[in-house]
Each structure stands twice: as C-alpha cells, then as structure tokens.
Amino acid sequence: MSRILLAADVGNTRAKFALLKASQRQQLPETLSTFLWKYDVPFARADLQAFASSHAASELECFLSGSHLGHIEEIVEFWPKELPEPRVIRTSTELPIELLVDYPDKVGVDRVLNAIATCFEQPGVPAIIIDTGTATTVDVVSSAGAFLGGAILPGYELSAHALHDYTNKLPLIPLQEILGEVPAVVGKNTHAALRSGLIWGQVGAVNEVVTRIQQELAQTVVLRPTIYLTGGAADLLQAHLNFKTIARPQLTLQGLACVAEL
C-alpha cells in the first residue's frame, strides 16, 4: 500500500493542502492534487474531508506547518474526525536541518521546508531558493545541507497594498491584475505606472539579490548553487530573471512530505 501524505502549508493569506505520494531519495514526493483555503471564508471541514476522500484514512499521514500559528490552531480545532490526527510543526527548530542563523527559532517554517526539499532532491549541492509569496524570500542552503539565511522583501501583493494604504490617491492594484499581461516599463497613467513599478521593481530586486548572493558564495563555495523558484508569482518572475532556475511550484509542501519520510 502506498503511503500518502496530506500536508498543509498555512501561510499569511491562505492555507494550501496537498496530497503527496512518497518517493525515493533524490526524488521529491509527487504532488497528486491540491486544495486551497483562503481566509476570507470560514474553514470548510467538509471540503477538506471530500478532498482527502480519494484515499482511505488508513493510507494517510497528516502534517500541518506554516507561518500563521493562529490559522494552524483553527485548522487543528476543526480537523475532520474521519482523518488521522495531524502532526503539527510550529517552529523551525523542530525540523531536521541545521540552522546557521542568529535566531533559529524565529526563521519561518516555510523557508526551512523549502531548504529541506532542495537537500532531499540534490544532496551535497548548495542552493538558492526564491519563494514569491506575501513576502518574497531569497534563501541559501550550503552544500552540507545547512540553512544559512537569506533576504526578505515585500512580495507583489504586499507592495501593492503599501502603495495604496500609505498614500492619498494611489489605487490598489489587485494581485490577479499584477500577475496578468506584462506591462510596458513606461506607464502612461498612474495605474500603468504602478503595474510597471510593482512588476519590474520585483524582478530587479530579485535579480540583484541573487546576483550578490552568487558573488558572496563564490568566495568560499566551489560548487555552483542550484537556483530554485517557487510561490504564487513564480511564473511571472521566471520569464524575466537573469539566470536559470528550477521551478518547483509545490516546494514547501514537498519539503513537508520529505520531513515525513526522514
């Protein structure tokens, strides 16, 4: 009987659930299907139960983790009784990876799960991980499999809200519009100029951060790092980066599945 993992990445604006199939070392667990809960609607226990019903409860192992502890506790409270009780990972220090940072317990769990996934897929190879969510993170993993830290900057949606909320007249650009057709750099009106700044500003920032990380690593690291790209805006970003990336849309959830296998 195949082992199936029901995993949840509980983020700042939504929780993403996935059914994943166990795999062999150096191959990330296969994502079979996904289910999204956005926090603007109540948690639907029946919907989660229906999502998981394609597999017998006896086949499932359930894991929860993420950056929003409040919503993790809400999910635990309303977890379907028909499903196995989930194992909950609340802090990064619970995870099987060395955290070479000043405050290991304060590192976002999602960032560390991404790192674990890259170590699982390419052991012994350093990695740079770009994750485009509410915040965009650019993190570094050593060839020894340690999380070294990284950079955090506002993501597309957070930047759009900041421009709207902290100015008098700038409109709010919805995320679906930001992720739509790529705009001209020179906007001919306020709306177009905002879209240009949001999109090209993010592209430029990520290119610059990754380039500087590569330069810093080159002083001490022999192997060239693999660059991973994940997160909701990964498709838009990937087309405009100055370097080759490996796209892994479900990297965080796959990292959680890797933890279940270790």
Automatic annotation (TrEMBL):
One of its GO terms (cellular component) is cytoplasm. K(+) binds at D131. It comes from the Bacteria. The keyword Kinase applies. Its cofactor is K(+); NH4(+). Coiled coil: none annotated. One of its GO terms (biological process) is coenzyme A biosynthetic process. A monovalent cation. Ammonium or potassium. The keyword Glycoprotein does not apply. Keywords: ATP-binding, Coenzyme A biosynthesis, Cytoplasm, Kinase, Metal-binding, Nucleotide-binding, Potassium, Transferase. Pfam families: Pan_kinase (PF03309). InterPro entries: ATPase_NBD (IPR043129), Type_III_PanK (IPR004619). GO terms for molecular function: ATP binding; metal ion binding; pantothenate kinase activity. Substrate binds at G108, V109, D110, R111, T190. The active site is at D110 (proton acceptor). Its EC number is 2.7.1.33. It catalyses: (R)-pantothenate + ATP = (R)-4'-phosphopantothenate + ADP + H(+). Its main location: cytoplasm. Pathway: Cofactor biosynthesis; coenzyme A biosynthesis; CoA from (R)-pantothenate: step 1/5. ATP binds at D9, V10, G11, N12, T13, R14, A15, K16, T134. HAMAP family: Pantothen_kinase_3 (MF_01274). Catalyzes the phosphorylation of pantothenate (Pan), the first step in CoA biosynthesis. Homodimer. Belongs to the type III pantothenate kinase family. This is Type III pantothenate kinase. The gene is coaX.
